[in-house]
Amino acid sequence: MKHKKFWLWIVSIIAIVSVICVGAGFYFFNVACVPSHKSFVSANSDVVKKTDPLYKQKKWYYAVNKEKWYMSSADGKYKLDANYIPNKGSNKTAVLLHGYMNNKNTMAPYAALYHKLGYNVLLPDARAHGESQGKYIGYGWIEKSDVVNWIKKVVKNNGNNSKIVVSGVSMGGATTMMTSGEKLPNQVKAFVEDCGYTNVKDEIEHEAQDLYNMPTVPRFPLVEILSGINRVKVGYFLADGSSVNQLKKNKRPILFIHGNKDTFVPTKMVYENYQASKGPKELWVVPNAKHAKSYATHPIQYEKHVARFLHKYV
Fold it and tell me: Could you give the C-alpha distances from 109 to 44, 59, 104, 196, 312, in angstroms and in order?
Protein backbone atom coordinates (compact mmCIF):
# COMPACT_ATOMS: atom_id res chain seq x y z
CA MET A 1 0.00 0.00 0.00
CA LYS A 2 2.79 2.39 0.93
CA HIS A 3 4.59 1.45 -2.29
CA LYS A 4 1.50 2.35 -4.38
CA LYS A 5 1.04 5.65 -2.54
CA PHE A 6 4.67 6.55 -3.18
CA TRP A 7 4.36 5.98 -6.93
CA LEU A 8 1.03 7.77 -7.04
CA TRP A 9 2.72 10.72 -5.35
CA ILE A 10 5.61 10.62 -7.87
CA VAL A 11 3.25 10.41 -10.85
CA SER A 12 1.15 13.28 -9.48
CA ILE A 13 4.23 15.46 -9.04
CA ILE A 14 5.39 14.69 -12.59
CA ALA A 15 1.92 15.47 -13.97
CA ILE A 16 1.72 18.78 -12.12
CA VAL A 17 5.22 19.83 -13.23
CA SER A 18 4.40 18.81 -16.81
CA VAL A 19 1.20 20.88 -16.82
CA ILE A 20 3.08 23.88 -15.41
CA CYS A 21 5.85 23.53 -18.02
CA VAL A 22 3.40 23.22 -20.91
CA GLY A 23 1.44 26.21 -19.61
CA ALA A 24 4.65 28.20 -19.36
CA GLY A 25 5.57 27.08 -22.89
CA PHE A 26 2.28 28.46 -24.24
CA TYR A 27 2.83 31.69 -22.32
CA PHE A 28 6.27 32.21 -23.84
CA PHE A 29 4.97 31.20 -27.27
CA ASN A 30 2.42 34.00 -27.02
CA VAL A 31 5.12 36.42 -25.89
CA ALA A 32 7.55 35.45 -28.65
CA CYS A 33 5.43 34.41 -31.63
CA VAL A 34 2.00 36.07 -31.42
CA PRO A 35 1.81 39.69 -32.66
CA SER A 36 1.06 42.15 -29.86
CA HIS A 37 2.69 45.01 -28.02
CA LYS A 38 6.03 43.81 -26.65
CA SER A 39 7.45 45.63 -23.64
CA PHE A 40 10.98 44.67 -24.68
CA VAL A 41 10.65 46.27 -28.14
CA SER A 42 10.47 50.02 -28.73
CA ALA A 43 7.06 51.16 -29.98
CA ASN A 44 6.91 52.17 -33.64
CA SER A 45 6.45 55.86 -34.30
CA ASP A 46 6.12 57.91 -37.46
CA VAL A 47 7.13 61.06 -35.58
CA VAL A 48 10.45 62.37 -36.90
CA LYS A 49 12.53 64.48 -34.53
CA LYS A 50 15.19 66.95 -35.67
CA THR A 51 17.55 65.48 -33.09
CA ASP A 52 17.44 62.15 -34.92
CA PRO A 53 20.77 61.54 -36.71
CA LEU A 54 18.74 60.12 -39.62
CA TYR A 55 16.24 63.01 -39.66
CA LYS A 56 16.81 63.98 -43.30
CA GLN A 57 16.49 60.42 -44.54
CA LYS A 58 13.22 59.86 -42.65
CA LYS A 59 11.75 63.19 -43.75
CA TRP A 60 12.51 62.28 -47.36
CA TYR A 61 10.77 58.92 -46.99
CA TYR A 62 7.56 60.33 -45.52
CA ALA A 63 7.40 63.08 -48.15
CA VAL A 64 8.11 60.96 -51.25
CA ASN A 65 5.31 59.48 -53.33
CA LYS A 66 4.83 55.76 -52.80
CA GLU A 67 3.01 53.10 -54.76
CA LYS A 68 1.05 50.37 -52.98
CA TRP A 69 1.93 46.80 -53.89
CA TYR A 70 0.00 43.78 -52.72
CA MET A 71 0.61 40.05 -52.87
CA SER A 72 -0.66 36.84 -51.31
CA SER A 73 1.63 35.07 -48.84
CA ALA A 74 3.46 32.02 -50.18
CA ASP A 75 0.94 29.69 -48.52
CA GLY A 76 -1.96 31.67 -49.98
CA LYS A 77 -3.49 32.47 -46.59
CA TYR A 78 -2.75 36.16 -46.16
CA LYS A 79 -2.75 39.46 -48.03
CA LEU A 80 0.65 41.15 -47.81
CA ASP A 81 1.28 44.87 -48.14
CA ALA A 82 4.30 46.86 -49.36
CA ASN A 83 5.36 50.36 -50.31
CA TYR A 84 7.23 50.81 -53.59
CA ILE A 85 9.27 53.90 -54.41
CA PRO A 86 10.40 54.04 -58.06
CA ASN A 87 13.67 55.59 -59.16
CA LYS A 88 13.03 56.78 -62.69
CA GLY A 89 14.97 54.90 -65.36
CA SER A 90 16.70 52.53 -62.91
CA ASN A 91 16.76 48.75 -63.35
CA LYS A 92 18.12 48.28 -59.81
CA THR A 93 15.79 47.51 -56.90
CA ALA A 94 16.42 47.08 -53.18
CA VAL A 95 14.01 44.90 -51.21
CA LEU A 96 14.17 46.13 -47.61
CA LEU A 97 13.13 43.91 -44.70
CA HIS A 98 12.20 45.29 -41.28
CA GLY A 99 12.71 43.88 -37.80
CA TYR A 100 10.64 42.10 -35.16
CA MET A 101 7.34 43.89 -34.42
CA ASN A 102 8.41 46.77 -36.64
CA ASN A 103 6.91 47.67 -40.01
CA LYS A 104 7.96 48.94 -43.44
CA ASN A 105 8.11 52.56 -42.23
CA THR A 106 10.86 51.72 -39.74
CA MET A 107 13.05 51.06 -42.81
CA ALA A 108 12.59 54.70 -43.87
CA PRO A 109 16.26 55.77 -43.60
CA TYR A 110 17.41 52.68 -45.52
CA ALA A 111 14.91 53.49 -48.26
CA ALA A 112 16.46 56.94 -48.56
CA LEU A 113 19.96 55.44 -48.65
CA TYR A 114 19.21 52.96 -51.43
CA HIS A 115 17.18 55.47 -53.44
CA LYS A 116 20.12 57.87 -53.22
CA LEU A 117 22.32 55.08 -54.61
CA GLY A 118 20.03 54.80 -57.64
CA TYR A 119 17.69 51.98 -56.60
CA ASN A 120 13.97 51.53 -56.78
CA VAL A 121 12.90 50.55 -53.28
CA LEU A 122 10.37 47.93 -52.18
CA LEU A 123 9.43 47.86 -48.49
CA PRO A 124 7.18 44.92 -47.56
CA ASP A 125 5.39 44.46 -44.27
CA ALA A 126 6.22 40.94 -43.08
CA ARG A 127 3.38 38.59 -42.22
CA ALA A 128 1.56 39.65 -39.03
CA HIS A 129 3.32 43.04 -39.10
CA GLY A 130 2.20 46.49 -40.19
CA GLU A 131 -0.60 46.30 -42.76
CA SER A 132 0.10 42.69 -43.77
CA GLN A 133 -2.18 39.95 -42.55
CA GLY A 134 -0.90 37.01 -40.54
CA LYS A 135 -1.37 35.05 -37.36
CA TYR A 136 2.15 34.30 -36.15
CA ILE A 137 5.67 35.76 -36.29
CA GLY A 138 7.96 33.41 -38.22
CA TYR A 139 11.30 35.08 -37.37
CA GLY A 140 12.23 35.03 -41.06
CA TRP A 141 11.86 31.29 -41.57
CA ILE A 142 8.33 31.33 -42.97
CA GLU A 143 8.75 34.86 -44.37
CA LYS A 144 11.66 33.88 -46.64
CA SER A 145 9.21 32.29 -49.09
CA ASP A 146 7.27 35.56 -49.22
CA VAL A 147 10.49 37.46 -49.95
CA VAL A 148 11.19 35.12 -52.88
CA ASN A 149 7.76 35.98 -54.27
CA TRP A 150 8.32 39.71 -53.76
CA ILE A 151 11.54 39.32 -55.75
CA LYS A 152 9.66 37.58 -58.56
CA LYS A 153 7.09 40.38 -58.50
CA VAL A 154 9.87 42.94 -58.93
CA VAL A 155 11.22 41.04 -61.95
CA LYS A 156 7.74 40.79 -63.47
CA ASN A 157 7.10 44.49 -62.89
CA ASN A 158 10.54 45.90 -63.78
CA GLY A 159 11.78 43.44 -66.41
CA ASN A 160 14.28 40.62 -66.80
CA ASN A 161 17.19 43.09 -66.79
CA SER A 162 16.45 43.89 -63.14
CA LYS A 163 19.28 43.86 -60.63
CA ILE A 164 18.01 43.15 -57.13
CA VAL A 165 19.55 43.57 -53.67
CA VAL A 166 17.90 42.17 -50.54
CA SER A 167 18.71 44.07 -47.37
CA GLY A 168 17.35 43.73 -43.85
CA VAL A 169 17.84 44.75 -40.24
CA SER A 170 17.51 42.51 -37.12
CA MET A 171 14.76 39.95 -37.91
CA GLY A 172 14.92 41.42 -41.41
CA GLY A 173 18.66 40.70 -41.45
CA ALA A 174 17.97 37.08 -40.47
CA THR A 175 15.25 36.90 -43.14
CA THR A 176 17.78 38.21 -45.67
CA MET A 177 20.25 35.46 -44.75
CA MET A 178 17.55 32.79 -44.75
CA THR A 179 16.42 33.98 -48.19
CA SER A 180 19.98 33.74 -49.49
CA GLY A 181 19.83 29.94 -49.30
CA GLU A 182 16.66 29.68 -51.39
CA LYS A 183 16.44 29.09 -55.12
CA LEU A 184 16.39 32.65 -56.43
CA PRO A 185 16.07 34.34 -59.81
CA ASN A 186 19.35 35.31 -61.49
CA GLN A 187 18.36 38.95 -61.05
CA VAL A 188 19.29 38.78 -57.35
CA LYS A 189 22.85 40.11 -57.22
CA ALA A 190 23.71 40.71 -53.55
CA PHE A 191 22.58 40.85 -49.93
CA VAL A 192 23.16 43.28 -47.06
CA GLU A 193 22.30 41.98 -43.60
CA ASP A 194 22.43 44.10 -40.47
CA CYS A 195 22.43 42.44 -36.99
CA GLY A 196 20.60 39.22 -37.83
CA TYR A 197 20.77 36.13 -35.62
CA THR A 198 22.27 32.69 -36.25
CA ASN A 199 19.02 30.79 -35.75
CA VAL A 200 15.66 31.33 -34.09
CA LYS A 201 16.31 28.98 -31.18
CA ASP A 202 19.64 30.64 -30.33
CA GLU A 203 17.96 34.04 -30.29
CA ILE A 204 14.99 33.00 -28.17
CA GLU A 205 17.28 31.22 -25.69
CA HIS A 206 19.41 34.36 -25.49
CA GLU A 207 16.36 36.53 -24.84
CA ALA A 208 15.06 34.13 -22.18
CA GLN A 209 18.36 34.55 -20.40
CA ASP A 210 18.76 38.28 -21.08
CA LEU A 211 15.19 39.51 -20.48
CA TYR A 212 14.06 37.05 -17.81
CA ASN A 213 17.40 36.13 -16.24
CA MET A 214 16.37 32.53 -16.80
CA PRO A 215 19.06 29.99 -15.88
CA THR A 216 19.73 26.80 -17.85
CA VAL A 217 16.93 25.14 -15.89
CA PRO A 218 14.08 25.97 -16.51
CA ARG A 219 15.24 27.48 -19.84
CA PHE A 220 15.52 23.84 -20.74
CA PRO A 221 12.89 22.36 -21.13
CA LEU A 222 10.77 25.53 -21.68
CA VAL A 223 12.41 26.48 -24.99
CA GLU A 224 12.03 22.89 -26.19
CA ILE A 225 8.33 22.97 -25.31
CA LEU A 226 7.96 26.34 -27.03
CA SER A 227 9.70 24.85 -30.07
CA GLY A 228 7.21 21.97 -30.15
CA ILE A 229 4.27 24.37 -29.90
CA ASN A 230 5.82 26.44 -32.69
CA ARG A 231 6.10 23.31 -34.86
CA VAL A 232 2.39 22.61 -34.44
CA LYS A 233 1.16 26.18 -34.86
CA VAL A 234 3.70 27.81 -37.19
CA GLY A 235 5.18 24.80 -38.97
CA TYR A 236 8.82 24.49 -37.89
CA PHE A 237 11.01 23.70 -34.91
CA LEU A 238 12.95 26.75 -33.71
CA ALA A 239 16.38 25.25 -34.47
CA ASP A 240 15.28 24.63 -38.07
CA GLY A 241 15.02 28.40 -38.58
CA SER A 242 18.72 28.72 -39.26
CA SER A 243 20.51 31.60 -40.96
CA VAL A 244 23.76 29.62 -40.76
CA ASN A 245 22.43 26.60 -42.65
CA GLN A 246 20.91 28.82 -45.33
CA LEU A 247 24.13 30.80 -45.73
CA LYS A 248 26.00 27.55 -46.37
CA LYS A 249 23.95 27.30 -49.58
CA ASN A 250 24.55 30.92 -50.59
CA LYS A 251 27.13 31.80 -53.24
CA ARG A 252 26.09 35.40 -53.84
CA PRO A 253 27.90 38.40 -52.30
CA ILE A 254 26.78 39.46 -48.84
CA LEU A 255 27.77 42.32 -46.57
CA PHE A 256 27.49 41.57 -42.85
CA ILE A 257 27.01 44.52 -40.47
CA HIS A 258 26.75 44.26 -36.68
CA GLY A 259 27.21 46.71 -33.82
CA ASN A 260 29.90 45.76 -31.31
CA LYS A 261 27.64 46.90 -28.45
CA ASP A 262 24.68 44.76 -29.52
CA THR A 263 23.23 42.84 -26.59
CA PHE A 264 19.82 42.02 -28.13
CA VAL A 265 21.35 39.94 -30.92
CA PRO A 266 24.84 39.28 -29.50
CA THR A 267 27.69 40.48 -31.68
CA LYS A 268 29.30 37.03 -31.54
CA MET A 269 26.52 35.71 -33.79
CA VAL A 270 27.76 37.68 -36.80
CA TYR A 271 31.05 35.78 -36.88
CA GLU A 272 29.30 32.42 -37.22
CA ASN A 273 27.03 33.85 -39.91
CA TYR A 274 29.99 35.34 -41.76
CA GLN A 275 31.96 32.09 -41.69
CA ALA A 276 29.00 30.12 -43.06
CA SER A 277 28.47 32.07 -46.28
CA LYS A 278 30.14 30.55 -49.36
CA GLY A 279 30.07 33.56 -51.67
CA PRO A 280 32.05 36.83 -51.71
CA LYS A 281 31.60 38.50 -48.35
CA GLU A 282 32.58 41.42 -46.20
CA LEU A 283 32.16 42.07 -42.48
CA TRP A 284 31.88 45.42 -40.72
CA VAL A 285 31.62 45.33 -36.93
CA VAL A 286 30.47 48.84 -36.08
CA PRO A 287 32.15 50.61 -33.13
CA ASN A 288 29.87 51.67 -30.25
CA ALA A 289 26.69 50.64 -32.08
CA LYS A 290 23.84 48.98 -30.17
CA HIS A 291 21.23 46.72 -31.73
CA ALA A 292 19.93 48.03 -35.07
CA LYS A 293 21.70 51.35 -34.44
CA SER A 294 24.71 51.01 -36.75
CA TYR A 295 23.30 53.43 -39.35
CA ALA A 296 22.25 55.99 -36.74
CA THR A 297 25.59 55.70 -34.90
CA HIS A 298 27.82 56.13 -37.98
CA PRO A 299 25.59 57.37 -40.84
CA ILE A 300 28.34 58.56 -43.18
CA GLN A 301 30.48 55.45 -42.77
CA TYR A 302 27.40 53.23 -43.08
CA GLU A 303 26.48 54.77 -46.42
CA LYS A 304 30.04 54.45 -47.65
CA HIS A 305 30.31 50.77 -46.66
CA VAL A 306 27.04 49.88 -48.39
CA ALA A 307 27.81 51.95 -51.50
CA ARG A 308 31.33 50.56 -51.85
CA PHE A 309 30.14 46.96 -51.44
CA LEU A 310 27.27 47.24 -53.90
CA HIS A 311 29.40 49.06 -56.46
CA LYS A 312 31.50 45.88 -56.72
CA TYR A 313 28.67 43.48 -57.38
CA VAL A 314 25.59 45.27 -58.74
Answer: 14, 9, 11, 18, 22
